[in-house]
Structure formats: C-alpha cells, structure tokens
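WARN retry 2 of 3 for item q-0093 after timeout on previous attempt; input resubmitted unchanged.
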Amino acid sequence: MTRKTAYTLCPRLMAITLIAAAPTGMTLTAPARADELTVTMHKVTQDGTGDAIGTVTISSTDGGASFKLDLHGLPSGPHGFHVHENDNCGPTMMSGVRIPAGAAGGHLDPDYTGKHEGPAGQGHLGDLPVLDAAANGTATQTLVAPRIKDIGILKKRALIIQTGGDNYSDTPNRDGGGGGRFACGEIE
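OK item q-0093 returned
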C-alpha cells in the first residue's frame, strides 16, 4: 500500500522558497507599501480623461508628504500642482463651457482658509510645490508638502497638474495663476 504525504508550508516559508527557486534574471515585485499611495495621471480634455502620462507615488516622511514624480508628455517648464477636493477627473460645465477635470473641485482646504499661499503658507492644504518639467517633457523629481502630515487625508481626492506655473498667491490671478488643468489623477 502506497502512503501519500501532504506537505504544507507556512506563507512566509513559501515566499522564501519561491524567491530561492526563482530563475536568474526573473524580477519579483513587492506589493506597494500600505503607507504609500500611487496615482496614475492622465491628460484631461473637455471630453474627459485621455492617455496616461505616468504616476505619482505619495508617502509619509518626517518632513511631510512626499510626491515622487514619474511623468512624461508634459509641456516643459513650471506647472501648478495641487490636491483637489474630489476624486473625480471628469469635466464639468461652467458658464456654458466644459472645464477639463472640473469635477475635481477646488484646492483641498479642510480649514476653509479660502487662500492660496503655497505649500509652506497657511492657506489651502492642497497647495503643493511647483512641478518643473524638463525640456523633454519629463518630471522625475520628488516634491515635499510640509504641512501634510497624514497622507490618509489625501484618499478620495484628485491630483491636478496645471498648464502653467504657480506664484503661490491669489494675486494677480486666483489660485496661483497656473491656467487650465492639464492632467488629473484620482487618489484611491
């Protein structure tokens, strides 16, 4: 009579066994850390969202929330970069005009300051450092928002990249004067 033996491994031992048995050249990817948020950014138009232009990975640091950029397809130069109230990148209507990513709402402002003062100011919490795209349209820097201490507040919000820069003021134009919305990503 043949005796069958079943072997069971605990999940940790099984993972070690799989790593040790992986063929040379094979890359194993670890899952995203629980304290990180990864946002896929998309170009936006009056009709909705378009092509993906890369990702932004948000994590907590001692100095505030860190936004690691891996973007392409941007116009070169400075761009306003903000966290907006709603996790919706769809267009909305304003004065008979469709606004790209208008459904994202305004800048995240949980303290109802009503002021745009940049990432170090006492205005909108969603005011982030200016994003600077290289001549080839890429942005790969890491930006830190010192006032955002808990990235949990960013869930169910949107990231917006504007067509132009940001002067961290409401004058001469409201919300930094960065122009229209170029790209949007919903933070899950």
